[in-house]
Amino acid sequence: MDLMVKWWLEKDGALVLGRGRCMLLEAIDRKGSLREAAKACGISYRAAWGKLRVSEERLGEPLVEIRPGKRGMTLTPRARQLLQVFHGIDEKLQEATATIVEKSLRD
């Protein structure tokens, strides 16, 4: 049996970063473009732009930077830090969940 924990980061009770937004940020990092990242995540450009802007507004700081003189985007150092924190916590939660489920099924 595979059980997973769903969680997200909030600020003042509002979503800032969850698994879906992490996927979007990582796709922006890989593709260098919000349009291509949205396509890779299976969402519209408008939805991707909205999710990104809402997270930035809630945090009060940018998560992406427009490349000067070029088309495309890069992640800010803060976005990279948030991704690292999210994945670190997620890994520990998934391990703890697996351990608890395994122990519960043995008892």
The percent range for strand residues is: 5-15%
Secondary-structure element series? EEHHHEEH
Label the structural class.
alpha+beta
Regarding quaternary structure, what we see is: single chain
User: How many angstroms separate the termini?
Assistant: 15 Å
Q: Main β-sheet: number of strands, strand sense, barrel status?
A: 2 strands, antiparallel
Number of domains: 1
CATH arch. level architecture: Orthogonal Bundle
Helical proportion, percent range: 55-70%
Brief sketch in words of this structure:
The protein has helices spanning 19-31, 34-41, 45-59, 77-106, and strands at 9-11, 14-17, 64-66, 73-75. The protein has 107 residues and is an alpha+beta fold. The radius of gyration is 16 Å and the shape is elongated.
Please characterize this protein's 3D structure.
The chain is of the alpha+beta class and 107 residues long. The protein has one domain (9-106): Orthogonal Bundle (Arc Repressor Mutant, subunit A), CATH 1.10.10. It contains four helices and four strands. It has helices at residues 19-31, 34-41, 45-59, 77-106; strands at 9-11, 14-17, 64-66, 73-75. A two-stranded antiparallel sheet has the order 1-2. Strands 3-4 form a two-stranded antiparallel ribbon. Helix 1 crosses helix 2 and helix 2 crosses helix 3 (45-59). The mean pLDDT is 92.
